[in-house]
Amino acid sequence: MGDRVLVSGTGPVWPDGSCPDDPGAQARRCFEIIGEALAEAGADLATVVRTRMYLTDPAAANAVSAEHGRLFANVRPAATMVIVAGLVDARWKVEIEAEALIAGA
Questions:
Q1: Does position 70 have pLDDT exceeding 90, yes or no?
Q2: How far apart are CA 80 and CA 67, in angstroms?
Q3: Domain containing residue 14: CATH number
Q4: Fewest C-beta in 10 Å: which of 19, 34, 79, 80?
Q5: Quick one: which H or E segment has residue 94?
Q6: How many CA atoms lie within 13 A of 8 on its CB side?
Q7: Do 66 and 24 form a contact (C-beta atoms < 8 A)?
Q8: Domains in the chain: how many in total?
Q9: Phi, psi of 5 (to 5 degrees)
Q10: Are 43 and 100 in contact (CB under 8 A)?
Q11: Contact call for residues 88 and 11 (beta carbons, < 8 A)
């Protein structure tokens, strides 16, 4: 497995297929899913070294940044935020990727 954990583009979907409308809530859901994926691989949000956030509207940047800051204020991963024309699901305003390192792996 190595020391890197890559979590590919994660959309803000609940198990029942629903999706919150608010971009902050969407970011929060993406990070919840990312946290679960990291845990399965033996990592956690504290081990994240890079995030990539794709937004469909620049107006969502503050809400998404606030969620990112809430989770990573002490971790301070390299972070990229990109505005895109659209995502796979038209309801999505946010899609997020993450990369983590597992110490001693």
A1: yes
A2: 14
A3: 3.30.1330.40
A4: 80
A5: strand 94-101
A6: 0
A7: yes
A8: 1
A9: -125, 120
A10: yes
A11: yes
How far apart CA 91 and CA 72 sit, in angstroms, is 26
pLDDT at 104 over 70: no
> pTM (2 decimals)?
0.94
Number of other CB atoms surrounding residue 54 within 10 Å: 20
Range of 27's domain? Answer: 4-101
For the chain, what percentages of helix, strand and coil (3-state, to nearest 5) are there?
A: 35, 30, 40
Angle at the Cα of 88 from the Cα atoms of 28 and 12, rounded to 5 degrees: 15
Mean pLDDT of 55-74: 98
Q: What is the dihedral of CA 70, 73, 75, 81, to 10 degrees?
A: 70
- Look-up: residue for tokens 């699901």? 89
**DSSP run (H or E) holding 36:** helix 23-40
- Retrieve residue 29's tokens: 């859901």
Using one digit for the tens of pLDDT, what is the confidence trace for 22-64?
A: 999 999 999 999 999 999 999 999 999 999 999 999 999 999 9
Q: What is the pLDDT of residue 105?
A: 55
